[in-house]
Amino acid sequence: MKSKRAFAVAAVAAATIGLAGCGGGGEAAESTTTADLGEVGGEIQYAWWGGTARNERTQAVIDLYMAQNEDVTVKGTTTDYNAYWEGASVQAAGGNLPCVPQMQNRVMADYSDRGALRPLDDLVEQGVIDVSEIPEGVLDSGRGADGQLYMIPYGAAFGSLMVNQTQVEQAGEDLPENGYDWEWLAEWLTDLTETAGQPSIDLIGANDDQLEGWVRSRGGNLYEDGALGFDREDLVEFWNYSEELREAGVTISAERASELMGVPLEQMPFSRGQQAAFFWPANGLSSAQATIDGVAPGSTLTAYVMPSGEGGPGNALWLSGLSIAEDCDNVATAADFIDFFINDEEAALAYESDNGANTNNANLAALLESPDTPESKKTELELYAYLAESDIAPVVYGKAYQSIFLDALNRYYQQVAFGEMTVEEAADAFIAEAEGTLG
After folding, report:
1. 91-112, pLDDT tens digit by residue?
2. Fold observed for domain 4-156+317-389
3. Do 195 and 172 touch, CB atoms closer than 8 A?
4. Which end of the chain is more exposed for a tag (fewer CB within 10 A), N or C?
5. In whole angstroms, what is the distance from residue 255 CA to residue 246 CA?
6. What is the maximum alpha-carbon separation in the chain?
7. Is this prediction's pTM over 0.85?
8. Can you give the chain as a three-state secondary structure string?
9. CA 20 to chain centre
10. Which residues belong to the signal peptide in this entry (predicted)?
């Protein structure tokens, strides 16, 4: 029988087949023919979001690239996630985005639809940017509603159920298996809560990741052709599910959830050994494990894909990638840097899949086989390989993701959890606001 690790490495080789043919934004719209891009050289600016560790790893990639391209200077600028998007929005409006802005498929429409990003199809077709190792369905998630490619995905983040394996085993409970559903999860969490005498998971209803997992497991999407891809009843059932668990003390309280809003992963109760389970993007597993190693030595954390349903695993791939600004005056160097970032194995090992699982099949396999890759990171990469084999359809996100799914969803569910609105009232108000925002 193959080991889990051997299966994961083998799965990488099958990922292209598993995702090939998944419907994305449709056929790519015809791009303009690439003019003479000129020579690679000169200066470009690359902007990204992240903390200290990501900044160091990104700079290592930049240094590797410049060592191989002595005539190029890559100036890096970085800030935290929220400040990055605030700044990018202003820059896009003024036509002065950095030549290579880091992008994310969940917010890309706010930039591609306003003409701030350059279509990349011509660069791919002519081999300037090699995407042959990126599964087709993953690559298609970098397409806009017009079918054109605006982002080359390099890192796949995705929702996960993080689990304190040590606590669960000490409680005498089974660990989840891939394919578990929402009903099983509720019963399992209830048993853990009764054994521990304290909440076993975070508050569910206010989180966009959990809503997407709920909708995707039912075969839907947050967006469909630029409009909402789910209906009122989906939201009502999701919030009722969350409310039943909250009222039973299985999730943390609304008050506690408010206190923890914006708190870094390392300071969350789960990372400090105070909670058995936690919904969080899988690329945070290494940080959570590093934290718990210091406060509760001997504790083992692991992660599982989102609950499944008739639509399969409730996961979408939240892809971070690299784009080229429409107003970039050094496209040749910008494209060459992207090609290096995506394909160079030494760069991939230096970056360590810091912003999601490496989407390049060959580099993903190299990371899984490397003795320098921590076990917690390999767990994340194995989950991505599993999802890549599961025929997960790419997602095309519409406009206003932040205002609808980060701001409004949280605001209305908070009113439910604090008893200010019924689930039905809040769902009606949310749907009306979202539809109004989307026009």
Report:
1. 999 999 999 999 999 999 999 9
2. D-Maltodextrin-Binding Protein; domain 2 (3.40.190)
3. yes
4. N
5. 11
6. 67
7. no
8. CCCHHHHHHHHHHHHHHHHCCCCCCCCCCCCCCCCCCCCCCEEEEEEEECCHHHHHHHHHHHHHHHHHCCCEEEEEEEECHHHHHHHHHHHHHHCCCCCEEEEECCCCHHHHCCCCECCCHHHHHCCCCCCCCCCHHHHHCCECCCCCECCEEEEEECEEEEEEHHHHHHCCCCCCCCCCEHHHHHHHHHHHHHHHCCCCECCCCCCHHHHHHHHHHCCCCCEECCEECCCHHHHHHHHHHHHHHHHCCCECCHHHHHHHCCCCHHHCCHHHCCCCEEEEEHHHHHHHHHHHHHHCCCCCEEEECCCEECCEECCCCEEEEECCECCCCCHHHHHHHHHHHHHCHHHHHHHCCCCCEECCHHHHHHHHHCCCCCHHHHHHHHHHHHHHHCCCCCCCCCCCHHHHHHHHHHHHHHHHHCCCCCHHHHHHHHHHHHHHHHC
9. 20
10. 1-20
Which residue intervals of the chain bear CATH 3.40.190.10? Answer: 4-156+317-389, 159-315+400-438
At 135, the amino acid letter reads: P
